[in-house]
Write a structure and sequence with these properties.
By secondary structure, this protein is an alpha+beta fold. Helix content is 55%, strand content 19%. It contains ten helices and twelve strands. β11 (417-422) and β12 form a beta hairpin. The protein is elongated.
């Protein structure tokens, strides 16, 4: 499957594949578990039936219990128990039955398991009499046990070897894992191809939308430039008699101001569209220290005019692989955002230093701190969405809610992580961590 250039589409495909594989795993798991439990239950039922029948046959070797013959004949006719077999899976279960007197001495033995010697039988009986557990272990074999106490004080104990049953169940598990793995791989390949087919309409619509935004933005720039140029010429003409044409000049100033805002919006839309179309970025060694110092130097005058202060603490010699122009754009967005939303006559601080993310991953941390209306958890969760602006600042400042979206796109291009925090009082911080 050809990987899409759009990260959103790739995430959608991954979610589709993940959901498909979870369904496959749950379905296979349910089938194999059900089969395993049914098989295990059938074996257990058959083994315990065989133990009970072995004790009865040992106790009544020639004479059946009252009514036993009628019951067996009736079950045989009804098809419940084939002649000569115990009720279960139709396999013969070999057993050992011993008779033990009240002092613990073995008086009689019936051994249908040829590989178990008399000494082994003595060990089995001794172990069983000491703890009376239903499961006993002998060498490489596992046995289940059942006893019956007779009126004369004797005890009849039957043993059945279930080691082959355990091996059979383990074999079922191994085969289930093998079959499950094959089915999983096949379904994964199918899911990958299906994900491409399912997301194709979404990807096409997304690309068409981005192409439209990019094309429309470019087309709008030309008439907007003409409008602004014409407005400037008329303004210069009217200013010759400013007193007389004051109202017309004010109207032209409003047109010029709104045109500037539209130009800014179109520029941001083009930048977002370019980021969505995943244009290749040429990476080279860039001094983040120099980029930060240049950005702070450029914005100091703007902050001064706005009666605010911009300070910086930048470590020397911080280098990364990246695009210098885009990194500068990232810093400009954060500095501009802090200026817009900080209180009057407040201070904004930019810090750039070496840092370990979560105390483990080494890198460079860029932070921009401002004093302004605190951001809520809800606002922080939406800050990097397109056109999102906090309600309390929507009317108070210029902007279109695209700056932080562009900043996030630049950060992702550089494998960096961007996030925001607030102390809930008047301190808001934006962080960008660049791994190195």
């Amino acid at each position: 499957m050809k990987k899409s250039k759009n990260p959103v589409i790739n995430k959608l495909k991954m979610k589709f594949i993940l959901i498909m594989m979870i369904i496959v795993v749950l379905f296979l798991g349910a089938i194999f578990t059900f089969q395993y439990l049914i098989q295990k239950k059938a074996m257990e039922t058959e083994n315990w039936s065989a133990l009970s029948k072995a004790i009865e046959d040992f106790e009544f070797p020639f004479n059946m219990k009252p009514g036993e013959g009628e019951r067996i004949e009736r079950d045989r006719k009804e098809g419940e128990i084939p002649f000569g077999q115990s009720k279960g899976m139709g396999r013969r279960v070999a057993t050992i039955v011993v008779s033990v007197d009240s002092s613990g001495v073995i008086t009689k033995v019936k051994n249908d398991i040829f590989y178990v010697s008399n000494s082994d039988i003595t060990s089995l009986v001794k172990n069983y009499l000491s703890d009376e557990k239903e499961y006993q272990h002998l060498s490489d074999y596992d046995f289940i046990c059942m006893k019956k106490e007779l009126d004369n004080g004797e005890i009849l104990i039957s043993f059945a070897d279930i080691s082959n049953d355990i091996k059979a169940l383990n074999h079922i598990l191994i085969n289930a894992l093998k079959i499950g793995l094959v089915v999983f791989v096949v379904m994964l390949i199918v899911a990958v191809f299906l994900s491409k087919w399912v997301t194709y309409p979404v990807e096409k619509a997304w690309n068409d939308q981005k192409r439209f935004i990019a094309d429309a933005s470019h087309e709008l720039k030309t008439p907007l430039t003409v409008i602004m140029s014409g407005t400037d010429m008329v303004r210069r003409s009217l200013k010759k008699d400013e007193e007389k044409n004051r109202r017309d000049l004010k109207r032209l100033d409003n047109i010029h101001f709104e045109s500037e805002r539209m130009k800014e919006l179109i520029g941001e839309l083009i930048e977002v569209a370019r980021g969505d179309m995943d244009q290749k970025t040429v990476f080279e060694e860039v001094s983040l220290t120099e980029v930060a110092e240049d950005a702070v130097l450029s914005w100091e005058a703007i902050y001064f005019e706005d009666k605010k202060t911009l300070t910086a603490s930048v470590e020397e010699g911080l280098l990364i692989k990246g695009d210098r122009t885009k990194l500068r754009r990232l810093m400009d967005i954060l500095i501009d955002n802090a200026k817009k939303y900080s209180y009057e006559k407040s201070e904004v601080t930019l810090n750039l230093k070496k840092w370990k993310y979560k105390g483990i991953k080494e890198g460079i941390l860029l932070s921009v701190t401002d004093h302004g209306a605190p951001l809520s958890e809800e606002e922080i969760s939406h800050l990097f969405e397109r056109f999102y602006r906090a309600d309390k600042t929507r009317e108070a400042t210029n902007g279109y809610g695209l700056g932080l979206t562009i900043a996030e796109g630049i950060a992702k291009e550089h494998k960096a992580r961007i996030w925001a925090e607030s102390d809930g009082k008047d301190l808001n911080k934006f962080y960008v961590f660049f791994p190195v």
